[in-house]
Amino acid sequence: MLIVIGGLPGSGKTTLSRLLAKRLAGAVHVRIDTIEQAIIRSGLARHPLGPAGYAVGYALTEDHLRQGLTVIAESVNPLPVTRDAWREVGVRAGVPVAEVEVTCSDPGEHRHRVTSRTADIPGHRLPGWGEVVEREYEPWDRDHITVDTAGQTPEASLETLMAQLK
Predict the structure, then answer these.
(1) Which residues contact 145 (CB under 8 A, 6 or more apart)?
(2) What is the DSSP letter of 143?
(3) Number of C-alpha atoms within 13 angstroms, CB side, residue 33?
(4) Which tens digits make up the pLDDT trace of 56-86?
């Protein structure tokens, strides 16, 4: 199965993706931020990277799916074109696709998360609050799972997601 997780920076998608990967046997977490930062560190490109990180993510994800693994593909996933591309990866691999949007409906809590976190990828520059609220992010225009992480623990968010995935 392919589980595509998207949402604005600071919404909780990385935390939720990691917890989900631990919970599901035979699952792997593919994080676009990790891929993009590795490409930047290689010296082949600079930030902003454009579609290269997503292209690598799609290829890795399809390989993992063809090996029979469940993939949790995590990225901001801000546009219909990226959402369509993830879905197409699942179709090509012949697996079901679940699309998940992670939100934080409390602006104060969301802002606190964005401004108080530290990068967990060497050299990765996290966006500031202004960049998050100004970021291009189009509404989802098709059925998908939504997990609102505001006011709950990551474990509670995981349980919400697990119930919706069933």
Answers:
(1) 98, 99, 100, 101, 161, 164, 165
(2) -
(3) 22
(4) 999 999 999 999 999 999 999 999 999 999 9
C-beta separation of 76 from 135 below 8 A: yes
Instruction: Give the Cα separation of 157 and 54 in Å (integer).
Output: 25
Phi-psi region of 47 (alpha: psi -120 to 50; beta: other; left: phi over 0): beta
Q: Are 11 and 104 in contact (CB under 8 A)?
A: yes
pTM for the model stands at 0.94
- Residues 57 and 36: their CA atoms lie apart, in Å, by 9
CA–CA distance, 102 with 5 (Å, rounded to integer): 7
Is 62:93 a contact under the CB 8 Å cutoff?
A: yes
Cα(52)–Cα(93) distance, integer angstroms: 21
Helix (H, G, I), strand (E, B) or coil at 153: coil
